[in-house]
Structure formats: structure tokens, C-alpha cells
Amino acid sequence: MIDHIKKFSNKYNVTLLFIFFSIIMFIVNLHVDSNISDDIEFKKALTDVSSFEFVKNYYLNWNGRIAINYFLTSIIVLDPIVWKILNTMIFILLFFTMYKIVLAITGDRKEKKAYLIISICLSIFLLPDAVFWSGSIWVTGSFNYLWPTALGLFSLIPIIYNYFEKEYNNKLIIFNLLAGIYAAYSEQIAAIVITFSTILILLSALKKKKIHIPSILVLAVVIINAIIGYTAPGNVKRFASEASLFPEYETFSVFGKLFYGLFYSLWHLVNEASSIMFIISLLITILMFTKNKRIMYRIMSLVPVAYFGIRIISAKSRPGNVTTAFDQTLEMFNKSNKISMFDNLYDLPKIFSDYNSKSVSMNVSILLGLLVFLCIALSIVKLFGNSRITIVSFLFYMAALASSIVISFSPTIYASGHRVFYATDILLLILLATLLSVLLNTITESKALFRIWIYYEAILVFLALRHLTFYIILY
User: Fold this and answer.
1) 464: which residues sit within 8 A by CB, 6+ positions away?
2) CA–CA separation, 367 vs 25, rounded Å?
3) Which candidate, 227, 229, 188, 190, places its Cα nearest to that of 55?
4) Cα distances (Å, whole numbers) of residue 81 to 27, 33, 84
5) Where are the beta strands (DSSP E) in 5-70?
6) What distance in Å separates the CA atoms of residue 153 and residue 193, rounded to the nearest whole number?
7) With DSSP H G I counted as helix, E B as strand and the rest as coil, what are the percentages for the chain, rounded to 5?
8) How many Å separate Cα 133 from the centre of its chain?
9) Radius of gyration of the chain (CA)
10) Model confidence over 318-331: pLDDT tens digits?
11) I need a labelling partner for 133 at 20 to 30 A (CA). Which of 34, 35, 305, 342 fits?
């Protein structure tokens, strides 16, 4: 088995694999029509004003995303091929960053590198169609979601490396700082980077009794630019404009906003991201059965697998039909098959207001969903014990959940639709890759695990081909 893995790794090195996936992602980008929705509006507006003037007006009247809006308005007026090439590069940066983060967490074993790269690159096709399209393939969406997510994670690399006591080339810090500046102007990504960085910097300082200056610089740059973006006068006007789509929003208490954010996030994870959650749950179960002999913990790890497995099997084929045997709460999103998440996006607020707190089935299903996600969290802790892997894996998991729940304090979450879950799903893919990397550390000892690995890769290849066919035909 070990000879087989070494042979594969020697034949397909890291560089060639990233080049191969660059071609794949360029093909996806190549078939994108950049004349849709906001793309058209931006191009029209830029015929009369410069990018600088546009960004200034936006800062005063809509949002404070200075860096994002400047790059968007500067590039969208150029030949579309420029964006297609740059977007491909950002995809590869995302893959490379995920790869480096996972290696820092689980160890840099030469035998598993090729397998890990293939898994990470293909895993992007596990993203729900609507999230993938609106967050990375739609031109305007890519600048606001794919780019800040990739650059935000890239800015975290020196901080994660320092926490795991890995060597990092400090000459690259300037690129991490620049990446942090761009990412800071996405409120969601800024919150993730600031929280993640603060926790790891404090833990590192407590352990080593000294401060890591490059990490502090990255954190400071992100905080300063996030404050500039957050205090933009235009944010208030945008809040008022999008709140008008949801008249009841401002009547909600803090608990109410958190509840609906939690509800919306559960809906996404149980339905749109069910494949990601099922694979994460399955990997946890496999690892639990190989590393922990306690029956109680093994049963606990099986609960999420059963939950998401039944969700996938019981899902009906019609897009938007999300009623399942497990989650009757979701009937409110279906309304006799007349309403779907994709086709009637702006009906969501009205549906949320129909929530019946006295409905036993609704409350039971919500509690069941929370129990499942709690089982995953506890399984991660029990799987790795008191270790750094546990802390960082748990942070990625909680950041994924919190990143979608917290932004419920703005009505933008309901106006923007599927793409608000882009960062959530990418963070879950990092957790998935981390679990897979741990599994790769043990496949040399088990033929059964190696077969599981092959089946998993076959599924990812199928999903990749499905996406490629879909986007080539669509565009």
C-alpha cells in the first residue's frame, strides 16, 4: 500500500496538479456571461464616472467595501477575459491556501500531498449550485465572496503556522497583509479573520510567552480596514433600503434575529449543503471507529450520518422541494410546492414571519437539528482529544456556523440569498479536508480505508463532471 502511494506521489507532483486544476477552473470561468444582473448596472454607471468616483459615491450611499468595489469597477470594464483569468487565479489561491492550512494542522507527509490536493480542488464542486454560481462564477458575486474568502484565508496562514510552530517565510508577510486589506472590506470575512486570529494569537502567546509580530500586523491591518468599511455612511442607507424588503425585521428582538439566523442557517446546512455535512459526518464516524473504542462515542458519531443520510435519500427530485421526513419545519419553505428557495428568494422574509412558536413539530425538528450539530462538535473534540488539531478544527466548525448566524443582524442576509453561505461552506470544506488528511495518515495501514478513499474520489469526479457539463451548457 505504501509503495502504491509513493509511486502516485512521485508521478504527479504538486505543481502539475495545480496547473491541471487551473485549466479546469479556467474552462468553468470561460463559459460565464459577464453581462447579467449587477454586472450590467456597474458597466452602465462606469460610462459616466471613474472607478474612484464610483467607489467614493458607493462609500457614502451604499456600502463601505472600498477595496472590493475598486477592484470590481476597475476590472469589470475591461475585456471579460481579464476577469476570467484573474478569477481562475483566485480559485487556485483558494485551493493552495486550503492545502497549506490543512498540512499545517495535520502534518506535512509527502505520501499524501497528491491525494490531498486532488480532494481539495475537487471538493469545490460539493458547493450547492446556487452558492457556487452566485458566489464565485457570477462576476459581481466573485469579487464580494470568492475573492475575500480566498484572500482572508490566505491572510491567516502565518497565524496558523505560528500556532502550530511551523516555519513560515516572513518575506511573504507583505502578501498576507495585502490579502487582509481586501478581505477586511467583506464584513463577514473580516469577522471570521479577526475572531480566528485573536484566539490563535492569544493561545500562542500564552504557550510561548511571547507575541508573534507578523500575526499582530495581519490582525491590526484587518481591524483597521474593517473599521473603515464598517463606519461608512452608506451602510446606514443600505440597511434601511434592504430592511424595506422585510418590514417586520426591525420589530425583532436580539433573540428573534438570532433565532431566524439560526433557522436560516439550519435550513441551508440540512438541505443545500447536506452533501458536505454528510461527508463530514461520515469521515468523523470512520475515524471514530478507528481511533476510539468507546461505544457511546461511536453511537454519537453515527447520529449525524443517519440524519444527513436520511435527508439525502428522502429528498424529492424537484428543485426547491425540501420537505423531508426528518424536518417538518421546512414545510413553511415549501408551501404546497409553490415556493422554493431558489425561485422566490424575496418571499423568504414573509415565510419566516409565519413561524409558529406553538408548533410542536417545528420546535422538535429545530431541536433535532441542533442536536445533530452538537454531536458533530462533541465528536470532533473526542476524536482528537486535548490537542491543537482539536482547537483549530473546532474553530473552523464553529466559525462556519457562526458566520451565517451572526450576519442575521443585518437584513442583507435575506436580500443577498444563497451567496451569504459561501464562506460558511468553504470553512466546512476545510474541516472536511482536515478530516480527510487525518484519514490519509492512516490509509497505509488499512486496505479498507484506501477503498473508501477511492470511492470518495469517484464521487467528487462525478460531481465535477456534472458541474462542468452544467456550466458549459448553461453558458
Assistant:
1) 24, 122, 125
2) 39
3) 229
4) 12, 11, 5
5) none
6) 7
7) 80, 0, 20
8) 13
9) 22
10) 334 433 333 333 44
11) 305
